[in-house]
C-alpha cells in the first residue's frame, strides 16, 4: 500500500489546536546571551532620568516608560510605571531566542511589547513547546522545534503540549488519543504524539502536516526516533556525545573577542579568528533553521556590533568560557540531529490514520474551545500599579 500523501495527512494545526503567536519584545536589549549584561543594562536604564531613560528604553506604540502594565504570570517584574521605577533587576530567565540558541531575558512585562501571558501561565518543568519554523516544502530545515524554555523565535506559531500547568490537559484534538489507541492497539501518551510529530511532520502549504500510521510497529519506531530528537532539542540531563569517541575540542585558544567565523571542510575545523575547534562534522556546520546556518546565527548573536550608547551595547568585554561550552554542546547536538538516526523518515507506508478518518470518527473538526487557552488562573495576578487583575 503506498505511503500517505500530505493531502491525506492531518494538519498539526488540527492535532495540536491551541497555538500562540511568539512573544514580540519590541526592543532587543531585554534579551542577551549572558545574564550579567542584562543586569548591567537594567542598572544603566534606572540610572538615567527623564528623556535619557526614555531614549535608552526605546519606546514603541505598545510600550513606553510611562505606561501602566500588569505583572507577568508567576510574579516576575514590577508594576509601577517604569519612568519612576527603582530597585534591582528581575532575575533573568532562560529562553529560546532563536533556533537552538538559548539566551536570557529580563522577565518584566513593562519591557515587552507582546509577552503572550497565556504562554507564561503554562510554562513549567512539565511543559514542552512545539515551535513551527516556517520551513519551506522540500528543504532540509526541520518544520518543528521543541523546547522546554519560553520560545521567542519567529515567525512560526507556538503549540504547548499541555493546556494547563503540571502536565494537565494535553493540547491535542479531543478524542485523538483514544482513536489512536483503538487503531494501534496501545494507548499512546501525549509526549508520544509529540515525538511522532517531530519525526514525521512535513512542511505544507497550510503549515506542517503530520502523516499518521496505524501500524503499531512503525508507530513505535517513529516514537523512538522522535523521543531521541526531543531529548537532543531539549538539551537537558546527560550531555550528548558523538559516536566513535569523537568529540569537538578547542584545539587553539579562542581570542578575547572573536570577530570572524569560518569552516574548513577538509580539516573539519571551525575557526573563530585564530581560535580553532575540531572535529566539527560538516553536517553540523551546514545545519540550517530560520534565516540560515544555525552556527553562523548563534555566533552573530554574540558578536554583532550594537550602536554605541545603547543598552544593547552593554555586553561582555571578552568571550565568556560559558559560551565556548555552549558552542561545543551545540555542535554535538546539530551533528547528532543530522545523522541518519536523527533525520525525518519518509512518510509511512501501510495502514494510515488520515484526516478523513479523523473526521469520520468525530475527532475533527475540533471545537472552537480547543483552539482557545484554558482557564488556568488559580490565584490573582497583580495588575498595573499593584492592583490585582480580575480574570
Based on the model shown, name its key terms.
about 400 residues; alpha+beta; four-stranded mixed β-sheet; four-stranded antiparallel β-sheet; 11 helices; about 15% strand
The helix/strand class is: alpha+beta
Order of helices and strands: HEHHEEHEEEEEEHHEHEEEEHEEHHEHEE
In terms of DSSP E residues, the strand content is 15-25%
Oligomer: single chain
Total of DSSP H or I helical runs spanning 4+ residues: 11
Rounded mean pLDDT is 92
What's a quick, concise take on this entry?
With 391 residues, the protein is an alpha+beta fold. It has eleven helices and 19 strands.
Can you give a write-up of this model?
- The protein has 391 residues and is of the alpha+beta class.
- It folds into two domains: 12-238 and 345-389, no CATH class; 243-339, no CATH class.
- It is built from eleven helices and 19 strands.
- The chain has helices at 12-15, 35-47, 50-57, 117-122, 176-184, 190-200, 216-234, 282-286, 294-303, 321-338, 355-360; strands at 31-32, 93-98, 101-105, 129-132, 144-147, 150-151, 158-160, 162-164, 168-170, 212-213, 249-252, 261-264, 269-272, 275-278, 288-289, 292-293, 352-353, 381-382, 388-389.
- Strands 1-3-2-6 form a four-stranded mixed β-sheet. A four-stranded antiparallel β-sheet has the order 11-14-13-12, with no helix packed on it. The protein has a three-stranded antiparallel β-sheet with strand order 5-4-7.
- A hairpin with a 3-residue loop joins strand 8 (162-164) and strand 9 (168-170).
- The longest helix has 19 residues, at 216-234.
- The protein is flat, with a radius of gyration of 23 Å.
- It starts with 11 loop residues before the first helix and ends with a strand.
- The model has no long low-confidence stretch (mean pLDDT 92).
Amino acid at each position: 500500500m503506498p505511503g500517505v500523501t500530505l493531502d491525506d495527512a492531518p494538519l498539526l494545526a488540527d492535532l495540536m489546536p491551541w497555538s500562540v503567536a511568539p512573544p514580540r519584545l519590541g526592543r532587543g536589549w531585554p534579551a542577551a546571551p549572558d545574564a550579567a549584561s542584562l543586569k548591567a543594562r537594567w542598572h544603566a536604564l534606572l540610572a538615567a532620568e527623564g528623556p535619557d531613560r526614555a531614549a535608552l528604553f526605546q519606546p514603541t506604540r505598545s510600550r513606553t516608560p510611562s505606561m501602566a502594565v500588569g505583572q507577568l504570570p508567576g510574579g516576575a517584574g514590577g508594576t509601577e510605571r517604569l519612568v519612576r521605577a527603582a530597585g534591582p533587576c528581575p532575575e533573568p530567565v532562560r529562553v529560546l531566542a532563536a533556533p537552538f540558541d538559548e539566551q536570557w531575558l529580563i522577565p518584566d512585562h513593562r519591557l515587552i511589547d507582546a509577552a503572550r501571558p497565556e504562554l507564561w501561565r503554562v510554562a513549567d518543568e512539565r511543559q514542552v513547546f512545539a515551535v513551527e519554523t516556517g520551513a519551506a516544502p522540500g528543504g532540509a530545515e526541520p518544520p518543528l522545534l521543541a523546547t522546554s524554555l519560553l520560545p521567542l523565535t519567529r515567525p512560526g506559531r507556538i503549540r504547548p503540549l499541555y493546556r494547563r500547568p503540571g502536565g494537565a490537559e494535553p493540547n491535542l484534538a479531543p478524542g485523538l488519543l483514544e482513536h489512536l489507541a483503538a487503531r494501534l492497539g496501545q494507548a499512546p501518551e501525549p509526549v508520544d504524539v509529540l515525538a511522532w510529530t517531530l519525526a514525521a511532520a512535513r512542511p505544507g502549504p497550510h503549515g506542517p502536516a503530520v502523516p499518521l500510521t496505524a501500524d503499531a510497529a512503525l508507530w513505535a519506531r517513529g516514537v523512538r526516533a522522535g523521543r531521541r530528537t526531543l531529548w537532543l532539542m531539549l538539551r537537558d540531563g546527560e550531555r550528548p556525545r558523538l559516536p566513535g569517541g569523537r568529540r569537538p575540542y578547542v584545539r587553539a585558544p579562542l581570542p578575547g573577542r572573536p570577530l570572524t567565523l569560518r569552516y574548513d571542510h577538509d580539516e573539519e575545523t571551525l575557526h573563530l579568528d585564530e581560535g580553532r575547534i575540531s572535529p566539527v562534522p560538516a553536517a553540523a556546520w551546514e545545519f540550517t533553521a530560520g534565516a540560515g546556518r544555525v552556527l553562523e546565527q548563534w555566533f552573530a548573536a554574540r558578536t554583532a556590533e550594537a550602536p554605541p550608547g545603547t543598552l544593547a551595547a552593554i555586553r561582555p568585554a571578552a568571550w565568556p568560557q560559558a559560551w565556548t561550552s555552549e558552542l561545543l554542546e551545540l555542535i554535538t547536538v546539530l551533528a547528532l540531529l543530522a545523522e541518519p538516526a536523527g533525520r525525518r523518515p519518509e512518510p509511512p507506508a501501510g495502514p494510515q490514520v488520515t484526516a478523513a478518518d479523523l473526521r469520520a470518527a468525530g475527532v475533527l473538526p475540533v471545537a472552537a474551545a480547543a483552539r482557545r487557552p484554558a482557564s488556568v488562573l488559580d490565584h490573582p495576578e497583580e495588575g498595573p500599579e499593584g492592583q490585582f487583575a480580575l480574570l
